[in-house]
Design goal:
alpha+beta; Alpha-Beta Plaits; 19% strand
Length: 150
């Protein structure tokens, strides 16, 4: 086959440092638009983004050649600078050091899109830690609570 083709989707989740509620509703649209641009600069495509005051979810279609930690690092660095440039949030905004990146199959794209779209409703009953633990369990990832949170 002369052409290399790939279609890889990843659901990325990360919180603010110490789950501080610093993502104000009035900046979400701008924040997610900015992240869309950062993803595009990495030849990735942001399909949907949403979250709560203390974390975000991103569904991203990855290019053929990508270093996922580098992409997430770029997104976190650039979006942190963008948030700090806004006059709405404190200047001491930081994302947590870690992140979750979970593979998504083509047949699950709509399910994940709906899940991300309904974040505000979802987090009326479940906090970020509960949600994140459920992802780790769903994907059979062994973890030690001492090293998951910052």
């Amino acid at each position: 086959m002369p052409q290399s083709i790939s279609r890889i989707f990843v659901h990325i989740v990360f919180s603010t440092k110490n789950r501080a509620k610093l993502i104000a509703p009035e900046i979400e649209k701008g924040l997610f638009g900015y992240i869309h641009g950062v993803a595009a600069n990495n030849n990735a495509h942001l399909i949907i983004a949403n979250g709560a005051a203390d974390h975000i979810h991103l569904l991203i279609s990855l290019p053929k050649k990508i270093d996922i930690p580098e992409l997430i690092g770029d997104i976190k660095r650039a979006s942190s600078r963008w948030i700090k440039s806004q006059n709405i949030n404190p200047k001491n905004f930081y994302w947590q050091r870690g992140y979750g990146a979970f593979s998504v199959g083509q047949t699950e794209i709509e399910v994940v899109e709906n899940y991300i779209a309904s974040q505000k409703e979802h987090h009326k009953d479940k906090d970020f830690k509960e949600e994140y633990r459920s992802f780790l369990t769903k994907y059979s990832i062994d973890f030690d609570e001492r090293y998951v949170w910052d």
